[in-house]
Amino acid sequence: MPNTNLSLRQFRERVQQLVPDPKARPFVCNESPLNCELFIVGFNPPAQTDSPFWSYWSDASGFNKPYFLRDNSVKQGLMQPRGLRGRIEQLTEGFPLFPCLDTPICSTPTRTARGLAPNDLRTELFRYLLDTIRPTVVYVHGKEAVEYFRTLTGVDGFDSRLRLGTIGDYQFALRGTLNSLSRMSYEEVRKVRDEIQEFFYT
User: Fold this and answer.
1) Which of 43, 86, 123, 155 is the most buried (most CB within 10 A)?
2) Is residue 186 part of a domain?
3) Whole-prediction pTM value?
4) Is the pLDDT confidence value at 181 over 60?
C-alpha cells in the first residue's frame, strides 16, 4: 500500500541523496509519488527534457506532470506525447482512481540500455522507491527490466496474466512484457491496460 509516513520534503531529500545527478529522471507521476498504487517500470529513460528534473517538483504538491508533458512535447515538436511517452500515457489514463508512477530501474537517460556506463547501472534509487511506496501492482516492460525482476522476485515465465511477486514481506501483483512499451502497438498497450484495470476494479 502507498506510504503515508513520509513528507514530500523528506522523500525528495532522500531521492536527491541517492541520485545527485541533475540529468537523471527518476520518475514521472501526477503530484505525490507516495500515493501511487501502480508502477510502470522500464530499464532506463530514453530522453531528457532541457529543464532539470527537480524544476517540476514542489515539496507541497509533488511532481508537476502537466508541465513535464508540455516541455517533453515541445522538445519533440509534437502537439501531444508520442512514442514511449504516448504509450505510457495511454496506459495510465485508464486508472483515474489509482495514481501511477512511471519509473526506470536506472535513472540515467540514454537512447538505449547499452549506452549506460557501469556507474549508471546502480539500482539503489529504484529499490528505495519500491520499498518505500510499495505499490499494489507493478508492470514491467522490456527484456532488461523483466530480467531484473526475475532475479529480484524469482518469478519466471512472464506472460499475459498478473502473477504474485514477493520481496521479503512485501507482496504485489506483477505483470511483465518482454517487449518495451516503445515497441508495442497501441492495441497491445490497451490489452495490458485492460488486464490491470480488471485487477483494480474487481
Assistant:
1) 43
2) yes
3) 0.91
4) yes
